[in-house]
Amino acid sequence: MHWIMIGLLALMMLLTLILVRPVRSPMFIPLLGIDWLGAALWAIFMLGSTFICVYGNYFDWWEAWEIRAATWISLAALAVNLWRASFLHHPYISFMAMKNRNVIRATAIYLVFFTLLATEHVFEHSYALNILGFDETNLIDLNWYVFAGILAGCAFTYFTFALRKWRYKTMTAIAFALAIVYLAWFYFMIDYGIEKEALFLPLFFRGAASVIISIVYLTSIVQSGLPFTVFPQALAINGFTGAVMGATFGPAIVGEILSHTVAKNASLIGRVMTDTNVLATYIPLPQLYGRVQLQALVVSMKEIYGWLLIVAIVSLTVIALSYGPLRPYAIFPKWKTIRRTLRRLSSTN
Fold first, then answer.
1. Which DSSP letter does residue 159 get?
2. Which 8-state DSSP code applies to residue 132?
3. Helix axes 246-276 and 285-321, enclosed angle (nearest 10)
4. In angstroms, what CA-CA distances link 335 with 25, 236, 292, 311, 340?
5. C-alpha–C-alpha distance, residues 185 and 145, integer Å
6. 58-62, 158-162, 278-282, 327-331: segment of lowest average pLDDT
């Protein structure tokens, strides 16, 4: 797979060198006014936040000096960035981008929505490998179901959201409804003997829901009305919250809940087996312990799926009761406007 990706990237570079004609622009745009220190500080903050979410459970959160150090470094970088943005003329990410209503709304939706789907990173691989006994080939085949859902979600969003101009509220409600179907299927159907084909629908719906919410709220950033010079800053925030925090913040929370829930259920199940003393008589202790852990894992997964399902239903209810008449519309600037803006910025700098 790595060789395939390297080959595709090399092919793209080669096609660019062969097919793209060099253009001699009449204006020269130097790299002036770029807040390089701000870029480095924002990178430190984002890397620190990602490190905390990914390795927090591994290092036992703030009991470890690694997580405490990452927390202090991230907070210091964020504080310095906010302080510098208060007086710099061209900060790397300005308050105008951070305070934009569409940016704030997209950030909140991403954190809630991808936390609901965090079971993708925490549960699915363990469930398919340890409980259903799938080998690597079957685990990889499951990704085709997700890919089919992504393609279907893209097509559905294009025909409804892009062409028919369905409302943001409608598209958000559809994405949350698909997430509810995904969570409900696992809550009611999770078991030891499920066939691989039975996982097609929930994985399909998960892929469709993820791509719908991503397209809709990326479009909301485009429609936020930000100036052209501030728009890339909003994209940086959107990329961090949607792609990075969406894949790390939710799994960190769900993974921590899973560890506590498994310990609680293992204690309860082990106590029942010890009190009855039936299985302990005929099953060796290591095998009995493995069965207890396996049963506790399944019960804990079902319990967490249930709680996430409740949160998803409440979220969908809030969305359905809210007032959202906004529809998408094209606000992309013309190339003539972009060239005029860049020329003016280059002359002022």
1. I
2. S
3. 130
4. 14, 22, 64, 44, 9
5. 15
6. 278-282
Q: How far apart are CA 97 and CA 105, in angstroms?
A: 12
Tell me the angle at which helices 168-189 and 101-116 cross, rounded to the nearest 10 degrees: 10
pLDDT at 275: 58
Query: What's the angle, vertex CA 345, arms to CA 238 and CA 337, rounded to 5?
Result: 75
Confidence (pTM): 0.81
Who contacts 173 (Cβ-Cβ below 8 Å, separation ≥6)? Answer: 316, 319, 320
Cβ count near 144 (within 10 Å): 12
- Whole-number Å distance between alpha carbons of 229 and 250: 32
Tell whether the model's pLDDT for residue 63 goes beyond 70. yes
Dist. CA 152–CA 32, nearest whole Å: 43
Which residue from 41, 40, 45, 55 is spatially nearest to 248, judged by alpha carbons?
Answer: 55
Of the candidates 226, 78, 201, 72, the residue with the CA atom closest to the CA atom of residue 148: 201
Give the closest residue to 326 by CA, choosing from 142, 169, 164. Answer: 169
Report the C-alpha gap between 291 and 169 in whole angstroms.
46
Helix ranges, the chain (H): 2-19, 36-55, 65-85, 95-98, 101-116, 119-122, 124-126, 136-157, 168-189, 200-222, 231-239, 246-276, 279-282, 285-321, 335-348
Asked if 187 and 309 touch (Cβ cutoff 8 Å), the reply is yes
Structure tokens at 332: 């992309």
Q: Is 242 helix (H, G, I), strand (E, B) or coil?
A: helix
- What Rg, from alpha-carbon coordinates, does the chain have? 25
Other Cβ atoms closer than 10 A to 64: 14
One-letter amino acid at 202 equals P
Query: What is the separation of C-alpha 90 from the centre of its chain, rounded to a whole number of angstroms?
Result: 29
Residue 189 tokens, joined: 């159907």
Phi-psi region of 235 (alpha: psi -120 to 50; beta: other; left: phi over 0): alpha
Half-sphere exposure of 321 (CA within 13 A, CB side): 6
